[in-house]
Design a protein that fits this description.
The protein is α+β, with helices and mostly antiparallel strands and 127 residues long. Helix content is 17%, strand content 21%.
Length: 127
């Protein structure tokens, strides 16, 4: 039987995909492809301890608040504090407080389209 092997992408609608892609390119240095307004993150470019998560949430969850969208994107970053400062400088609304767990640190913001984005700085994997 075939099986899924990982997250292949996060796809969502935007009223202005080119402008949103440019915003992420500017404020989080995402290497956006000019033709498709997308980016491929290669596994060998991720820090030790990083992984992808597929996780359905209950329809009544407040975890995506204050966004009214039915999804939230999580981006892996190399410097959570720096990334939050950069997106705030770019006009994003920072929401919540930084949270720390054994597997890393998390922070959140609302992007120009009103999407809640979770930033994750993984704790390096122990060898």
């Amino acid at each position: 039987m075939a099986r899924a092997l990982g997250i292949g992408g996060a796809f969502f609608k935007s009223p202005d995909p080119r402008a949103l892609a440019a915003w992420y390119s500017t404020w989080l240095r995402i290497p956006v492809d000019e033709q498709t307004q997308s980016v491929a993150f290669a596994p060998d470019q991720l820090p030790d301890g990083a992984f992808s998560v597929w996780g359905p949430f209950d329809a009544a969850t407040e975890y995506f608040a204050p966004s009214a969208k039915p999804f939230m994107v999580n981006l892996i970053v190399d410097d959570l504090d720096g990334a939050l400062s950069q997106v705030a400088e770019g006009g994003a609304e920072i929401v919540g407080e930084i949270e720390e767990y054994d597997f890393g640190r998390f922070g959140w913001f609302i992007d120009p389209d009103g999407n809640k984005v979770e930033l994750w700085e993984p704790t390096p994997a122990s060898s």
